[in-house]
Amino acid sequence: MRRPFPARPAAGFSLLELLLVAALMATALALLGGAVASALPGQQLREASARLAAELRATRARALATGEHQAFALDPATRQWRSGPIEGEAHRRGELPSSLTLAATVAREAQPGPEVAAILFFADGSSTGGRIVLRREAAAWRIDVAWLTGAVRVERGAGAP
User: Can you say whether the dihedral through the CA atoms of 105, 161, 144, 140 is positive or negative?
Assistant: First the structure.
């Protein structure tokens, strides 16, 4: 006579095992979500610093390529920037996220207005130089532009004033 049920248990998982795995996955996702959410503000700061440095480098490259002086102007109050010829229409414009604060140290002679900071790039690659510091809470990144070479460097921290 045959038994209606097999002698060994069927392969598979019990309901308790499935609930345990689901609880562990939910806990892991909650921890990962918290880590990702706390990293986003720092990522936004790094991204904005890199984008601003790239625009400064592009402005310098345009000065070298065209043989015309170029200006990169930044309004710290509105967080808007523009780059292009010293006289004339801007080639590029942009705006930094409102969650960031910034400060700029530039040559007084290069400032087009009382609240606008500008760095001039000359046809030989040199510049008026300057420093732009982007902040979000306690974190900061600085962008330094060398006056002699016009080289743009990005580093973490506000640096010495």
Answer: negative
